[in-house]
């Protein structure tokens, strides 16, 4: 969708044409879901996340100022949401008695990356990446976005991201399958 | 030996995992609409408050809740809650407002009253049972007051009117019954049945028309729903009139406020009711009875000036209304 078309829709929505938001949802729900799915590795969590992101985006539409692309703005909301979910999962592992259930009764202690969708060895690598590192990998590796574009989305300088990406790649390399074998804790076994 | 190209390896692994299709449009839109409706109710309440505060600026009133009286049906379930409002608190609240706020409220209220008056005039020109949606674009004042204001769509209908209960009964008799005569000499004189207009108006089309034509407001006919908002009947007697208002309660709509000074729980047969009196600044004291008929959701409110009927007569009339078949 063209930038001018998106801006026209957003202006109409801000002026009260709620039904136009359906067009926005149709356009962005799958890419945002794909991002959340890779971030969280869990289908239901990703579906909950995309709903939350699109709902929050509508709620805060008045704060969107066109200084960055709408897509980048949505990804930022999605990143914040996913980072929170990941943080909560991490806490649930450290403090299971306090965090073992969310408000829907879902048990995060028992929950791990959805192995049906993220099998070994990807799961092994993915678990060791932070929310920011996952975002970087997703955008750079899978979506093949330029650093300049990722920089807008992650609010960082392209050069910083380039260095960070190299570090993440090295980190991934440690856990990639090798003929010599790598233990689950990331230490070389041979 | 480690992989020489981790980028490619990672890409292959990520790309190999199929991503399911998702469609959350209806869920997101439902959540937004639910939130909007909630906010709309709050806005409506605020408008109500502004109008009332505006009246106070013009020397009348705004109020705060004081105490609650509950009516229960024969099964002990709460069917009606009435909150007593206080005049003193109205004045206190008003005194606390800054002069600027008072001015702003006064100006905004003037705009709202103008829009409501215009709506009244438009409805006067309709035939009974016809309804319209009136689209008012946002005014400068409204935008200054709240940049997130939404245009006001005033949806109104012209009531059906009757001169005999026999005629009126054909329209509303399946919902409630009242006697044609009651008390010492009160006779059905006039009746109105107000039905809720449908909310299926095209706000977008009205907005576009208003922007294109720059009219002050845009009117669109809307169909009437089959939901009774309320009915009002005037009974005339030798000393004056008694008025009966009837509405059908739903679960969301069983609480209200009253400016009456005295509230008292009384019985109409085995039916709980609230008896209240209210003395306006420039007028006769009015007393009224309100109750929900046991076994139904019909809410009756019967009122008359105290010079027209005694409390006992009012209770007697209420009993007759409850027994009407």
From TrEMBL, chain A:
The RNA polymerase sigma factor 70 region 4 type domain, residue ranges: 123-172
All copies of domain RNA polymerase sigma-70 region, residue ranges: 25-90
Keywords noted in UniProt: Sigma factor, Transcription, Transcription regulation
Superkingdom: Bacteria
Family to which the UniProt record says this protein belongs: Belongs to the sigma-70 factor family. ECF subfamily.
Protein name in the entry: RNA polymerase
Automatic annotation (TrEMBL), chain B:
Transmembrane intervals: 47-66
Keyword annotations: Membrane, Transmembrane, Transmembrane helix
Superkingdom, taxonomy of origin: Bacteria
Name the record gives this protein: DUF4367 domain-containing protein
Protein's organism: Brevibacillus porteri
């Amino acid at each position: 969708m063209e930038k001018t078309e998106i801006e026209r829709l957003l202006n109409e929505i801000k002026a009260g044409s709620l039904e136009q938001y359906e067009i926005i949802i149709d356009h962005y729900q799958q890419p945002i879901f794909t991002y959340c799915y890779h971030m969280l590795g869990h289908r239901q969590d990703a579906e909950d996340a995309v709903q939350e992101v699109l709902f929050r985006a509508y709620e805060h539409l008045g704060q969107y100022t066109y200084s960055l692309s709408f897509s980048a703005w949505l990804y930022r909301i999605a990143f914040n949401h996913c980072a929170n979910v990941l943080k909560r999962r991490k806490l649930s592992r450290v403090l299971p008695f306090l965090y073992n259930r969310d408000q829907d009764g879902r048990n995060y202690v028992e929950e791990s990356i959805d192995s049906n969708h993220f099998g070994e060895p990807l799961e092994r690598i993915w678990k060791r990446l932070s929310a920011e590192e996952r975002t970087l990998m997703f955008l750079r590796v899978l979506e093949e976005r330029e650093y300049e574009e990722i920089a807008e989305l992650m609010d960082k300088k392209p050069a910083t991201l380039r260095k960070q990406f190299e570090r993440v790649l090295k980190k991934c390399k440690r856990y990639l399958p090798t003929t010599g074998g790598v233990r689950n804790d990331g230490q070389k076994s041979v | 030996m480690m992989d020489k190209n981790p980028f490619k390896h990672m890409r292959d692994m990520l790309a190999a995992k199929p991503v399911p299709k998702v469609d959350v449009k209806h869920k997101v839109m439902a959540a937004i609409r639910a939130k909007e409706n909630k906010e709309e109710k709050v806005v409506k309440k605020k408008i109500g408050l502004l109008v009332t505060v505006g009246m106070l600026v013009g020397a009348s009133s705004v109020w705060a809740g004081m105490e609650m009286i509950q009516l229960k049906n024969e099964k002990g379930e709460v069917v009606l809650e009435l909150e007593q409002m206080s005049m003193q608190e109205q004045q206190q609240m008003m005194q606390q407002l800054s002069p600027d706020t008072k001015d702003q409220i006064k100006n905004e209220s003037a705009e709202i009253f103008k829009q409501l008056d215009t709506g009244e005039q438009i409805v006067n020109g309709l035939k009974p049972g016809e309804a319209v949606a009136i689209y008012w674009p946002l005014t400068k004042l409204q935008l200054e007051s709240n940049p997130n204001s939404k245009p006001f769509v005033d949806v109104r209908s012209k009531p059906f009117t009757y001169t005999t209960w026999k005629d009126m009964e054909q329209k509303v008799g399946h919902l409630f019954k009242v006697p044609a005569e009651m008390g010492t000499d009160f006779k059905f004189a006039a009746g109105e049945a107000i039905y809720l207009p449908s909310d299926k108006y095209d706000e977008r089309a009205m907005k576009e028309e208003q922007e294109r034509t720059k009219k002050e407001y845009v009117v669109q006919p809307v169909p009437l729903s089959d939901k009774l908002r309320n009915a009002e009947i005037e009974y005339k007697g030798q000393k004056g009139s008694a008025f009966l208002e009837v509405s059908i309660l739903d679960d969301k709509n069983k609480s209200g406020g009253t400016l009456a000074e005295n509230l008292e729980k009384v019985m109409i047969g085995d039916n709980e009711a609230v008896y209240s009196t209210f003395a306006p600044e420039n007028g006769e004291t009015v007393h009224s009875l309100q109750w929900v008929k046991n076994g139904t959701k019909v809410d009756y409110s019967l009122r008359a000036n105290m010079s027209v009927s005694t409390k006992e007569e009012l209770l007697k009339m209420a009993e007759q209304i409850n027994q009407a078949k």
